[in-house]
Design goal:
Blueprint (H helix, E strand, L loop, with lengths): L2 E6 L8 E3 L8 E4 L4 E8 L3 E6 L8 E8 L2 E18 L2 E10 L5 H19 L2 H4 L11 E6 L4
Antiparallel strand pairs: 1-9, 2-4, 3-4, 3-6, 4-5, 5-8, 6-7, 7-8
């Protein structure tokens, strides 16, 4: 039987997110303990969403090590939340949100703000400008998406 997932058209997050792959090549980082984590998205206000094979307890302080062409960046932060997102063949995958203590290094902050400005301009463009054949939905519209059960 298909599952029904409710998708709200209104964004509830406090700040926009940028896909991590647009900022960090390959979207991969390492924790100071050596575990590799996948960066999912980055908030311009200093938080990062990651996927990990290890549980990160909320409140724990962590250090992320990112490789950006020409430099290695260490960023300290605190785990805001962590939840199980997958269980496959006895392996657990976690999703964690990390709030950075000192924000982003200048080179990353500049790149994030440029990407955020581009995204903001795309969001404020009128629907007629983007595609004249599309009828815009009201801001309060809610969409219902049916998904087949994943095997």
């Amino acid at each position: 039987m298909p599952r029904i997932k409710r998708v709200n058209a209104e964004e509830r997050r406090a700040s926009r997110r940028v896909p991590a792959s647009e900022v960090v090549p390959h979207g991969i980082a390492r924790l100071s303990t050596g575990q590799e984590v996948k960066l999912i998205n980055i908030s311009v206000h200093g938080s990062i969403l990651i996927h990990s094979n290890v549980v990160l307890s909320p409140g724990t302080y962590v250090r992320l090590r990112l490789k950006i062409p020409g430099s290695l960046i260490n960023m300290d932060g605190r785990v805001q939340r962590c939840r199980v997102i997958a269980l496959k063949q006895g392996k657990v995958k976690f999703e964690a949100a990390i709030v950075l203590n000192g924000g982003f290094p200048p080179e990353m902050a500049e790149r994030l703000h440029l990407l955020d400005e581009e995204k903001s301009q795309m969001e404020t463009a009128s629907p007629a400008t983007l595609n004249s054949g599309v009828i815009p939905l009201p801001d309060t519209a809610e969409l219902w998406v049916m998904r087949a059960r994943e095997a």
